[in-house]
Amino acid sequence: MNRVLPNQTFIALNKESHLSKMLRLSQGIGTLYVSTHFELGNSDLLHYHDEPHLTFILHGGVTDKRKNLETERFSGEMMFFHAGEPHQTISRSFPTKYVSFQFQSDYYRNNPNLENELKATLENDPNAKLSMLKIYKELAKKDEFTESSIEMLLCGLMNGKHFDRNSRPNWLNKIVEILNDNWNEEISLNELAFAADVHPKTISKYFPKYFSCTLGEYRRRIKIEKSLALIKKSNFSLTEIALNCGFYDQSHFTETFKQMTGFLPKQFRKM
Q1: Can you tell me the distance from the alpha carbon of 180 to that of 174, in angstroms, rounded to the nearest whole number?
Q2: For the residues of 5-28, what is the DSSP string, one character each?
Q3: Cα–Cα–Cα angle for 35, 139, 96, nearest 5°?
Q4: 197-249 tens-digit pLDDT
Q5: Which of 43, 68, 83, 89 measures 20 to 30 Å from 51, CA to CA?
Q6: Torsion 198-201-204-209 (CA) sign
Q7: DSSP code for 255
Q8: Sign of the dihedral defined by the CA atoms of residues 227, 149, 141, 249, in that order
Q9: CATH architecture assignment, domain 163-270
């Protein structure tokens, strides 16, 4: 990591070594990229961007290097980069395919809480990865609703204040912790209420206000989010993955996966 490149766009970084599709949103939020890398390029060198950006790995794997931290990332994982943050994204298998979004400078400057709220969402909302898959699906459609649909999905990602632990009551943080630690097990509302020391009606009333979904939908989001890595990295059949993720059968799993991502599980596996 001994070379620092100047601020670069995604296309300029790997001009000769990858294919890329680009959609610049007309409302000035930023630009969406879908890139397929076939060989090492300049993004494997140390570089930075003036604006924050996020990347979802559709296929392949990379080594994510920042400062003294080195992390292996695989298909179905998300990466978030702060504005000006030096990093390397080193492809470990080819082709490697990403869907990325980089915010425009004006939008970033006019929204000072953007980075913190977005980071909170990406770290804590199981729907974040699923939204990126929906964004990729919308980009592939290329119809008259593509841009507006993508903007709505991005706005949902930027609603991070709902996923900031400090903004939630402690009992709700306890419930989220239980749901994430026991994501593939059956847990009743009464069991959650007992563990968090609140009345079941309190959970039913306030959970949707903080997470904009029911308790059941939140649990299904976690299960589908967890299934992404299993579909891409394991040799398990889809039936085995469905059962491992707490679904009754493959049919239920497939239906839920399609509803939440826009793809069938077998389509995501082949992607």
Answers
A1: 10
A2: --S--HHHHTTTTEEEEEEE-TTS
A3: 20
A4: 999 999 999 999 888 889 999 999 999 999 999 999 899 999 999 999 999 99
A5: 68
A6: negative
A7: H
A8: positive
A9: Orthogonal Bundle (1.10)
Q: Note whether 10-162 and 163-270 share their fold.
A: no
Question: Which two tokens mark 13?
Answer: 């970084």
CA separation (Å) from 195 to 28, 166, 222? Answer: 45, 20, 20
Please state whether 83 falls in left (phi above 0), alpha (psi between -120 and 50) or beta.
beta
The whole-angstrom separation of Cα 235 and Cα 230 is 8
CA distances from 194 to 182, 190, 199 (A): 15, 6, 8
Amino acid at 98: Y
Ordered by start, the domain boundaries in the chain are 10-162, 163-270
CATH topology of domain 10-162: Jelly Rolls (2.60.120)
pLDDT tens-digit map of 119-169: 888 888 899 999 999 999 998 888 889 999 998 898 888 776 566 677 789
**Contact between 57 and 74 (Cβ < 8 Å):** yes
